[in-house]
Structures are given as C-alpha cells and as structure tokens.
Amino acid sequence: MRSRMIPERMMLALAALCVVMTGGTVDAKVYEPESITLANGMQVVAITDNRVPVVTHMVWYKVGGADEAPGETGLAHFLEHLLFKGTEKVLSGQFSRTVSRNGGDGNAFTGYDYTAYFQTIASDKLPLVMEMEADRMVNLTLDLDEVASEREVVLEERRSRIDNNPGSLLSERTNAALYLNYPYRRPLIGWAHEIKALTRENALAFYRKWYAPNNAVLVVAGDITMDELKPLAEKYYGVIPARAVPDRKRPLEPEQISARRIEFSHPQVGQVSWSRRYQAPSRFYGETDQVMPLDVLAEVIGGGATSRLYRSLVIDRKIALSAGASYSGSSIGPGTFSFYAVPTEGTSVEALEAAFEEELAAILRDGVDAQEVARAVKSMKASAVYARDSVTAPAHAVGQALAIGRTIAEIESWPDQVGAVTQEQVMQAARAILDTPAHVTSILRPKPAS
Amino acid sequence: MRSVIARASVPFLVFAALLLVRPGIAEAIEIQRVVSPSGIEAWLVEDHKNPIITLSASFEGGAAADPDGKEGLAVLTASLLDEGAGPYDSDAFRRKLEDMVIGLGFSARNDSFGASLQTLTENSDEAFDLLRLAMTEPRFDTEPVERIRAQIVAGLKRSENRPQTIASRVWWRAAFPHHPYGRPSGGTVESVGHVTTADMKAFAGRVLTRGSLKIGVVGDIAPERLGTLLDKTFGTLPESGPSTPPVPAKPAAIGETFVVQNPVPQSVVVFGHRGIPRNDPDRFAASILMEIMAGGFGSRLTEEIREKRGLTYGIYAYTLPLEDAQMIMGGVSTRNDKVAETVGLVREIWAEMALNGPTEEEVRDAKTYINGSFPMRLTSSRPIAGLLVSLQRDGRAIDYLDGREDRINAVTMADLKRVAKRLFLADELTFSVVGEPQGLTATAPAPEPRS
Q1: Residues of chain A found within 8 Å of residue B372, distances taken between Cβ atoms
Q2: How, if at all, do strands B266-274 and B430-435 pair?
Q3: Does B47 contact A at CB distance below 8 Å?
Q4: Domain B257-376+396-435 maps to which CATH number in 3.10.310.10, 3.30.230.10, 3.30.830.10, 3.30.428.10?
C-alpha cells in the first residue's frame, strides 16, 4: 500500500511507476478499456486480461480529502475506514471476512481527489463482492462504539505514519506552506486534534453528500469482458437511484510572491536531507498543456542515475549522495514539481543548495539537450509496455484517471502525447514553473538527543 | 496529488508467507523444465500476451556469510554489480539499461543472493548479455564503489535512529548473540567502510556459481531460445564454489522483555520466538494456523487488538524460515500508555491458541483463503518468476503446485491442535519495545551492539 507521506527517494520511484501506470504502448494503445454508463449515471469500465482466473474489482468515488470542510480534516479517510463497519445485511467486520473467506483480498484508500475500495478475487466470485460493495454505497449503519474505536485506530495510524516519522512531519508542514489556499495544504489523514473531534454524524453527513452511483466509477480488470460485466453492473449497481451530488468547488491559489523554507531538526534523523517543492500545473489546474512537457522534464533532469542532476551533483562534483526530481500532475488541483538531494559527508546543506541553484539556473538559461529529450521520450514510451503486465495496476491507473475527470481517450492517447513533446515545450514549461517563487525548501537535520 | 492513504496494515506479511505459507492450485500456470545444451536448468512459464521476459535467479550464500567486521559485503556487492561491467563504465552501463528500459538488479538476503532481469522481447539479447557481464566481469571502479558505499552509509544513518530499526536490531542481537543473524545484515557505518574491492571480487567469484544456481523465467520466450540464452548468460560461471553447510542456531533470550527508552509518541514493538523448519511435515498445518492468527482482517491478532480495542493501526506476524534458524516474528505499534495492555494481549492470544487450537469455522475459512488466493499471486510476471525460484530452492518437484490444495485440505483438526502447541509458545515470546511505554517492566537490559 502506498503511504501518504512519501519519502523523497520513494517519490521518484512512484513518479516512475505512475508514468508507467498511465503509460502506453508503441502501437498507441494502453490498456484498451471498454466503458459504458449505466442509466443512473455510474460509469462502468472493463479491462480484459484473462491470463489468470482473477479479477480486481474497484469502486472509485469522486470525493477525497480536498472536499472536506475546514475544521474537519481527515473526514474522507475516516469515512473510508468506517465503510468496513457494516450495513444491515453485512455486519461490521463481515465485509473483509467474507472476501477472505472466499479466497480474496481487499482494501481501500483515500486520496485528496478520490476514495477507492477494491477486492482482488477469483473471477467467479465477482458477483459476491459487487453485491456487498453496492450495498455499502448507500446502506451504511454506524454504531457509536465502533466509531469511537475506529477513531483510535486512525489516531494510531497517524502516529505510525506521521508523528513517529520526522520526514513525514516535515512533509506535512511543507504542504501546508506550499499551498496558500488550496485544500492540499491540509493533511490527508487529518490534524490530530481534528481527527479526535470527528463524529458519527460528520461521517454520515459526508457519506450522504458524496456517495452515490452517479459520483462513482466501477472498474473491473482481469478475467472479465464488458459483455459479462454489463449485466452484473446493472443488477447490483444499476438499481441504486442517482441523487444530487454537489459540485466539487475548489478554491484557487493566489499569486505566490515569496519563496519559503522550513528547517526541522529531530533526534530520530540520522542524515541531513534537502528538498524543494514547486507548485505546478496539473491535468485540471493552470496551464494544462505543460503537463506532458513537465513529465519529460522531470525524467531528463532528475529521473535516474544518468539524469542531469545526478550526473552533475553526485558523479561529477561529488557533493551529493543522491539527487533527483519528480513531477506529479495527476490531480484536480495544483501539481508539484519536486527536487531532492542528500549532501555528502563534509558538504554543508547550504553548499549543496547553492550548487543546485547553479544547475537549475544553467538549465533555465541554456536549456536541455534535444537528444536528452528524445532519449527520455523514447524510454518513457517503451517502459509503458510493462504497465500491461498486471491485473491490479491497470485498474488503479484507469480508475484514478477517471476519478479526477479524465477520459479514456486521454488515457489511451498517452503514447502519442508523450511522443509529441518537443524540446521547446519542455523548456517553456521549465521556465514557467521553475523560475518563480512558488516553492518551499525543506531541510531535515539530525538533532542530538538532549 | 497522487498521495493516498490505505487502510491496510500487515506490511510485512507477504515477505515470509511467500516461501512457506500460501500453497494452492496450479491450474493457472504451466511450468516447463528447460535444460540448456550445456546442462543449465531453468523453470519456465511461457506467456506471449505481452512482449516482456522476466527472469529471477538465486545463488546460495548471502549476508550471513559476511566476515566479522565486514558486515555489509553482500549488500554492497549487490549494489555494485550493475554499476559497470566489461567494456562499460558505470555511466555507460546505466545508460544502456535506461535506453532499452531493461530492469536489472541484484539483491542480498541473509541466506541467498538474487539476480533479476526484466526486458522487452526486442531487447532480450542485449539484456541477457548485460546480465552476463554484470555477473562475470563486474568492474568495481573506484568512483561507483565510493559513491554506492557512501549511499549505503547514508541509508544506515538515516534508519539507525528509527524506532522500528532499533526494536528489530535489539531483538535479533539478543536472540543471536554469537550467530551472524544477530548482526545487521546491511552492515554498520563502520563495517561497510572496511569492505574492499578485493572482498567484493572474491565474494562474486565465490557466490555466483552454477552449483547453487536456481532460475525462473516468465513471459514471451520459447524453451529453445531460452536454452540458448541460458548457456550464453550463465555458461561461463564457475561450476561451484566451496559450500557452507548450515550452522543450526537456537535463539537465546527466551521470554524476555527489552525496553529502549526513546521519546516517541507511539511505542514500536517487535516480538518473536523459534518456529519450525522449512521442510517440516507440519508446515501445512502451520500455514493454516498462521493465517488464522495473523492473516489480516478477520484474524485473531487484528480482530482482538485493532478491531475490538482500537489499540493499533497494524499488527502482524509471519513465519521466517531462515537457513540456520526458523522463526516466527511479529510486530505492533501503539501509544505509550497502551503498550503493556497490547503486549499482554499478544501473549494471551498466543496462549489461547496453543491451549484450545482454532475453531472449525476458522479452519474452514483459512483453508478456503489459502487455496483460493493462490492465483492472485500469479497476476504479474515478477512474483511468478520468484515462485519458480523458491520452489527449486526448496527442492520441490516440478508438479508440486498440483498437490498443494490437497495437502492443505488434508490437514485435520487434530493436526492443528497438536501443531498449535508446537507453534505458539507464549512463554517463549520475547518482546523488544522502543518508546516510553508505561507500566511495562523490562526483564533484562537491552543488549549493546557487538563490538
């Protein structure tokens, strides 16, 4: 399972994974999903791969942490936990138990823009999980004691993920600084004091507001065809009436006029590290035509051991142990373009930052090499073939893209999109994003235990 | 934002379960034995849906064989084999891998050393040749050696103050004061500094041999072509090196509780005791019992400690059948004022299972899960390749998977009750706690690192 606060090194790996996951093949097709819409407005998608008699069944709701009202951070995630606490038909705890009793695995996760529930199970058990998932779309009943106990679980989760981990604490504060007005500034898991105040009524109100078939996407991948899926979807999900769901009103960011920095020292930290996050456009925010060029830019300047930053700072100048960049533009709100570096023994983090600034200035002044762009584009396109070697990963990639409002045509044209990126576009996007004060620099330092 | 939080717990379950715990049906895959003209064997699952070939290989000998004072040798070597070989320096080698989108890597575990390769069919000649070069002509140039060494040292520094790392190290140090398992397998800041290029060359020559080689291949390749590539890739490895017989070791520090004071809001707990051997006839019963005890939601640990009481986000336990010692390990994190209660509950749940065994319903559900979930491991190439290797390492017949379901179903309630007493030894559980736990008394001081 992906964790919410991703260490910088993993972030890079994740970025690469997402390139692959939303990626394409050389013949300009990616997952070849089929899509229909039920009469009640629920989108239904089948991705066929019948090598193994297994399906991944996912329901994505178009609601997430960024849709919470101020003061109730963590509510979308808390509700996700509570969806396992039962309906009149499927009592608390029985959902997971029934899935595993039938040889399946399941779970759920919450993002800023979506909440998803999934099971992977033998394909002949698909109707069973569809019936239970449809049931909890509208029939949740919540016991007060269960809510109280699960709140403790979520607080333990927060302690495990954030409070016991200085890198996560810093990352949480970095986002709070990077976004001045957009809800991505709030922690997805919630601030501890606000989690403690979440009630059964809060959760049910959020549930009734957002959970509806017309606000959900069903994705089934694996040993399934649309001909098989359609009647099942109609039977289990098609009978749930549509209901009015609010527009997702998201605020805009004001102009950023000054860069910020955050330094954090903690006894648990054994190694200094440096990172910088820029606000960037995304698929639905700002200059959306910069998204593909930024993907390529991240690959060229910070995508691996032959990237510009790694070669310069790590191999040639020997002032960094590692260095790289990543871009995340798959969101409704602003994206991020991030850099990270770890100084070598004997290099101050200030000297490393100065060297990074020099490199960045040189890139913005002189541009990236056309050959490097061509090389990155070629390998990004080729790597996309690997995305098909899985049942669950395509379901995740397609569901995530649809949940934020993209179309199947856009997902499938990814190879063409990346193939069309030019050096000029890359540099135009680089100058538009990286030559601004819309960034936060974060430094994590050891602190001798007192 | 791509960030997500998942509801899952049980982070490490898969790690150990892979080797022992999840048998099942084999209808989903057909395994072929491929023997090359020069006699190199690989197990192959042919699959031409995607133009991808995936290979996994393992050799005997891992971090446990690192000489004292040079802990980290295996890990460092693994990180350097793909940093330049034959005519290619580090940059040229990495560039070839990236340009052809070839995934090539090596990994060191306690008892084994692994290689993995994933390539598009169209680049497979080059990919297998890069694997050959990495194994037979690694360069160990000074620049990458010092760069990777510094990265590993930084990684050790980064993790050494983490409560999870401290809890785990204390546990293993106490259990194996004189055996290599008591050392951090990745080495220490000091020991990694002592590893020389000559050490790494000797390690590669000793470990990368045909004698202990096991290979699994999945994907877009016919047996004849694989045979040719096997000879080209592995044919020049030496026949075998000096083998190191297992040195069976029994864990010490039985039934202890260690506490390391650390100012964190949530204590991190690692626990465990001895387990049963990899080839023990009771291993099927054990896998059913472990599923009932620690198989995520619905299992005893998660139900009692997370679902009923809200004491933790995640509790896990797994079998760890190492070469020289077989273990059952687990872990949990909980706020400081709940550690004593949580540790007490683990002991009680352990003891209850040993005393009364599982219920009929639990057994039925666990058998269904173990058998039914098996195909889910076969939905992408890498885990299948890994499975092919572990079957060979464990000395299984090529049709072994065909009988897995029957072997699970054949386990009786009497077997389970008997094995539960063998498997869950509440009095032997040793806990290592890092945090500021309240109301929990240490039974002995936490052991200091070996000098």
Answers
A1: 102-104, 121-122
A2: antiparallel
A3: yes
A4: 3.30.830.10
